[in-house]
Amino acid sequence: MISRYSRPEMAALWSQEAKYEAWLRVELAVCEVYAKRGIIPVEALGRIKAAARVSAPRIDEIEATTRHDVIAFLTNLEESIGADSRYVHLGLTSSDVVDTAQALLLVAAAERLLAGLERFRSALRVLALRHKDTLCVGRTHGIHAEPTVFGLKPALWFAEAGRNLDRLRRAREAVRVGKISGAVGTFAHVDPDVEEEVCRLLGLEAAPISTQIIQRDRHAEFCATLAIVAASLEKVATEIRSLQRTEILEAEEPFTEGQKGSSAMPHKRNPVSCEQICGLARLVRTNALAAMENVALWHERDISHSSVERVILPDSTLLVDYMLYQMTRIVEGLQVYPDHMRENIERSFGLMYSQRVLLRLAETGLPRQQAYEIVQRDAMRAWRERTPFRALLAGDPEVTSRLSEADLDACFDPRWYLRNVDAIYTRAGLS
To answer: Quick check: is 262 catalytic?
Structure first.
């Protein structure tokens, strides 16, 4: 697991101790259902629940000899329970315990991620509302396009975070599945209603059909969802990185007291946290591909998926949890520079109003292509001569013969471009 990029709560969830405790929960749930059905003595259940203990170091010690983690676990359980251990693991196969327990851990991880995603989305809401009226230039292909407001950037991310919440809830349900169906999924030694009741006790659904394992398309869906969440976070980080470039500097990730940007250049304030997010997103995407590879297994089960999941499930949840925490911190502390935005607007000499001029000329009856050529001619001259676009239009007879000074003023009024911002905010759930 990637300890550097993990937070304590999620890391604890994927500890050896937590894993073995989850296995124990499954074994005890089966014993409880067995006791209700008279398969094991009720008094034995009481003794088992009172005595059952597991020790991760001891299990690891035993596994060094057995080379089988579930047998090592059961051996350690026998050491704590004693003679009543004969009632534990009756009719079960290892994957009944491991896969069902893993579902418990994945659900718990999903709950933490959902909470983190909610916090991130709330931070985006605040940022979007704060800058609803902050005028800036919109860019397409990295080039000045038309006026917009800075708040529409976090508003866009806010809406996407909502879709990710929906995706993650669905993915949580996809993995919220247990199985107690035996060595090849035929319920040869355990009845289906036992599986259903055990899963109910654990807060899980019973897999409608399984082999020795729960089918891995569920885990692939979960990992793919985490990859989408990570890609969305990368999207935000990439935009902030671009906006932080010296030539733009419209927004900047937090730079804390005592922080250093470069060992050589004291002036540096680098977007290192956003760069980190972009790098970690690559790992989460790679893990999603590995999860896809786990879907196809030999016959009723092989073990090729197991070693992969011991890495990708903890790591992906740890990474996304960390990324959500970091991006929430960045959004909450984002430095936004409206003055620089106004300066940047002027860098393109008013060219961002070109479409409004084009359409206004067309409204006078001028063929659109002809209007386009007139506007483009003056626009290219503005670039070439570094001259205000508005002044060139005002001196162009082909323009002034159709548009008055008032018409040109209206074309260069950013409010016309932003008149539907309120409607966008309403549609995005930000009103």
So the answer is: yes
